[in-house]
Specification:
The chain is α/β, with parallel strands linked by helices. The protein folds into two domains: 39-167 and 174-297 and 509-529, 3-Layer(aba) Sandwich (Aldehyde Dehydrogenase, Chain A, domain 1), CATH 3.40.605.10; 301-488, Aldehyde Dehydrogenase, Chain A, domain 2 (3-Layer(aba) Sandwich). It is 39% helix and 20% strand. The protein is built from 17 helices and 25 strands. Strands 16-19-20-15-14-22-23 form a seven-stranded mixed sheet, with helices on both faces. Strand 6 (67-70) and strand 7 (73-76) form a beta hairpin. The N and C termini lie far apart (79 Å). The structure holds 2-acetamido-2-deoxy-beta-D-glucopyranose (NAG) (4 copies). One 2-acetamido-2-deoxy-beta-D-glucopyranose is lined by residues 392-394, 419-420. The active site is at 296.
Length: 545
Amino acid sequence: RSLSLLSRPRLRWQHRSAIEVTNEPILEFKPGSPERAALQKALNALQGKTETIPCVVGGEEVWTADVRYQVSVSSSSCMHPDLLNKDIQAALAVRREWDLRPVQDRAQIFFKAADMLSGPRRPEVLAKTMIGQGKTIIQAEIDAAAELIDFFRFNAKYAVELEQQQPLSVSPSTNSMVYRGLEGFVAAVSPFNFTAIGGNLAGTPALMGNVVLWKPSDTAMLSSYTVYKILLEAGLPPNVIQFVPADGPVFGDTVTSSEHLCGLNFTGSVLTFKRLWRQVSENLDRYHTFPRLTGECGGKNFHFVHASADVPSVVNGTLRSAFEYSGQKCSACSRLYAPDSLWPQIKAKLLEEHGKIKVGNPAEDFGTFFSAVIDDKSFGRIKRWIKHAETSPNLSILAGGKCDDKVGYFVEPCIIESKDPKDPIMQEEIFGPVLSVYVYPDKQYKEILQLIDTTSPYGLTGAVFAQDKNVIDEATKILRNAAGNFYINDKSTGSVVAQQPFGGARASGTNDKAGSPHYILRWTSPQAVKETHAPLGDWKYSYMQ
Ligand SMILES: *[C@@H]1O[C@H](CO)[C@@H](O)[C@H](O)[C@H]1NC(C)=O
Ligand SMILES: *[C@@H]1O[C@H](CO)[C@@H](O)[C@H](O)[C@H]1NC(C)=O
Ligand SMILES: *[C@@H]1O[C@H](CO)[C@@H](O)[C@H](O)[C@H]1NC(C)=O
Ligand SMILES: *[C@@H]1O[C@H](CO)[C@@H](O)[C@H](O)[C@H]1NC(C)=O
């Protein structure tokens, strides 16, 4: 299959405007394949280069003295509130015109960007995600290619189809619903771990007629800037999305104190999200409209294993979920509950496979399973958890856990057994390649399900491994609020756009289900219009005669 074939748009316009879109196929990158050769070329092109990235103010590139470095990148930070305020003004200046563009026009830009990512720009954005964010080929492919392309295509389809949801008209009036963008600007704060999330956070509000200030993560600058450029090349007018690398607190303070803030989508820590929410409440009196606040803040995701489970699925599913991308996914499995009858088998197999995991530089050695964690802060935090495991009498390290920051922030995949189901390591998010296991007596599985539900403040993802249908049924009921994405006999990671819409409640966030039609509704402020075609004859009612 050649790469140029891939650039053919995979959508068909049917009568009126139902649009057929399918998920972007995930390429395999087998030795000798054209996609592998193209990727290798793109990786080579990035070697030893430093790309410089401006901050964009009112459509102009601005180079500030405050320069940040990511691997292979230096970027100018729009540190100053004055620059940010200029961005806000520039965005607001184009808002009306952008919002009035027919949704089909706006959607075309995203279909085009998806086609560019699917075809000619795929190797570049993959290479930048691999090098910049330390991803393996497959982790970059499912993110920067498949998921981002799917977000653009499906959201564009949902946006166009939304127009067909119209109210009843009763003679002599016609009623219609106008899907307006929100009045003001949307602030989007994206994380380092998914190139696709950045594109979706900034892109989807824009698709719906909003203007957006996008603060990309310092550690995903290379890929984020490329996505931004691709959107412009696909026809996104200047100033609809403002690309503003900035310090979190400066950005947060400036956007929350603007009277024009109308929406905020945040991905990151609970603490920061709460801080932004509080700032918005404190500024409530200034705003023209109630800002929509949405956030995704992580998880403490579980794999519950029942005595009737299929052991190999448990082992391989858990290894992938816990350790892929060094566990730096909000959906990563970080607590495993195993029944004592199966534990010896599960443990033996986990340790055996653990020994085969290669940690290294995935851009140089395609055989690595995962790479270094993203930065020194992350490294330090994970190291503290491993130290905790070493010193706590209730915890024992079964495998891995060595930390080495000589050439990168490398952490060996670590498996820990906890005798205490309520140890902080079973409750708090770690965001690293650390899996904690609690072994329970088979008979007590119901109590364990209750325990899983009440152990952590999060409610993002979770999985149940069991062959017994009654157990699956019970678990599904008891864990109803424990996970927004719930898996049965499958791992807790790997949600696919339009197949498993993503998001969780509790401390995990506002559960807006990215990758579904519900998501786009957050970015529209509908207007109901009634038009009457007959003269209004009377003000008196018949009963008054
Ligand atoms: C689990 O993964 C290993 C390594 O990829 C593989 O050898 C083994 O067959 C897998 N087990 C099952 C049941 O698929
Ligand atoms: C990405 O990382 C952030 C932390 O920077 C985390 O809060 C978020 O949940 C992660 N999202 C996903 C989809 O992994
Ligand atoms: C060890 O676990 C038990 C409960 O299983 C708990 O009561 C005790 O406080 C824990 N010890 C430490 C040091 O955390
Ligand atoms: C906000 O962004 C996250 C991804 O980080 C996404 O899961 C969530 O659905 C988004 N919410 C809205 C309303 O855009």
